[in-house]
Design brief:
Blueprint (H helix, E strand, L loop, with lengths): L4 H14 L4 H17 L5 H10 L12 H12 L3 H9 L18 H13 L4 H10 L10 H12 L4 H18 L3 H4 L9
Helix pairs in contact: 1-3, 2-3, 2-7, 3-5, 4-5, 4-6, 7-9
Length: 195
């Protein structure tokens, strides 16, 4: 229940036309990392690429913080892409706790309830974990050191929950064990640039 690669790329381009910004290339970097890690972890690399590419698709609807989570979830559900909708929801919550969100709470009461209820119903799997990890290393210019990326987010928003920070480090360790390879080597950190 996700689009193919070409459909996903078209959805992202259309979304960028509605709300241009660095989030598009951040999404391409996330997709690149997800595909590379999935291929070395016994996962479906095509699915991982699409999920990574569309995890922030809610940004199509404007400059929102927590609102991009509910916007993306609702948009992908309306298209029948349930797997992508789930990732739009889970990518920001490596602990299933809305209070740990890094950014502004700019959702309506209805949107907040949607996020809380749907998050509660999810049992995280390796695709959820993979996109959470890739989101924590994906910059608009390419792959970033995880600590540098999280520090950048902390500097932009003024806070970064320590439990969320530590959970991201554990995700890196988890996937490095699965791959049997250093994360940055696996995703070609020094050479990849989004196009």
């Amino acid at each position: 229940m996700y689009p193919d690669r070409e459909q996903a790329e078209n959805l992202l381009k259309e979304a960028e036309n509605c709300n241009p910004g660095p989030w598009g290339n951040h999404s391409r970097t996330t997709a690149h990392c997800a595909e590379a890690i999935a291929a070395k972890s016994g996962m479906n690399a095509e699915k991982a690429y699409v999920l990574g590419l569309l995890h922030d698709i809610g940004r199509k609807f404007g400059k929102r913080h927590l609102g991009h989570v509910s916007d993306g979830y609702s948009y992908m559900m309306s298209l029948g892409y349930d797997d992508v909708a789930r990732i739009c929801l889970t990518h920001s919550f490596n602990q299933k706790d809305i209070s740990k969100y890094v950014g502004n709470f700019d959702t309506t009461e209805e949107e907040t309830r949607l996020i809380v209820d749907e998050l509660e119903a999810v049992e995280p799997d390796d695709y959820d974990r993979l996109i959470q990890l890739c989101d924590s290393i994906a910059g608009a210019e390419g792959v970033m050191d995880q600590i540098d990326r999280m520090t950048d987010v902390k500097n932009r928003y003024g806070d970064y929950d320590q439990e969320k920070w530590d959970a991201n480090i554990r995700l890196r360790d988890y996937f490095e064990r699965k791959m049997g390879e250093d994360l940055y080597s696996a995703v070609d950190k020094d050479n990849f640039k989004p196009e």
